[in-house]
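User: Hey, my collaborator sent me this sequence without any context and asked if I could get a structure. I don't really work with proteins. Can you help?
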Amino acid sequence: MATGASFKDAYLRAVACDPVSRFGGIIALNGTLDASTAEEIVKIVTDVIVVPAATDEAREIITRRRQARLLVTGGLPDPYARPLTVRSVAGGLLVQTRDDANADKLELKVVTKRAPTTEEIADLKFAFRVCKHVKSNTIVYAKEGATVGIGAGQMSRVDSARIAAWKAKEAAEAAGLKEPMTIGSVAASDAFFPFADGLEATVAAGATAVIQPGGSLRDDEVIKAADAAGIAMVFSGTRQFRH
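Assistant: No problem. I've predicted the 3D structure and written it out in structure-token form, which is a compact way to encode the shape of the chain:
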């Protein structure tokens, strides 16, 4: 996931995070699909493209590719609406309100000796937004408004942190970069770090700031590890565990 000056720019920045998994994937934009972006998207096999609207030129470009399906939604839902989400379980249903947490509306608490910079705060909020949409356990690395490493769906949080760093290293090698884009990034965790090892894994990956809910019995241990590494850490107070 990425933001950018244009949809083409955002798309290319998002792909740079994980060019391997991009193949045969689903692309979603939050605005009108233009011809320039469509031309870039169809360079690689794409199964589905979801957009609120598309220009005639973009539609024509997509129709040339048999594999791609263009879904035009006609609009976007209210991101702060709280409709119910439903999960099936044996003998019934689990019904709950949707996670509508937004870092811009939360009081972030700086818990380390070093406070995050303005740039780090912006990326921490971006990583927080991405994190809640990724399957738990989740670690998201972000830099300059783009994901640069995503670790998802592991039993261990430290493993998610390491997988994200490993994927970032592979992406850097594919792009011919000297170092992974996680160097100088920030990291978001969807739930607290139960031990300092998960936090230390994000530091090893190159993160300079971390956002996490806090609330672990070992918060003090994790904070000390962050201070020892010289990184900034903020608590959101909001858990975003998604299954």
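In plain terms: The chain is about 35% helix and 20% strand. You can pass these tokens on to your collaborator as they are.
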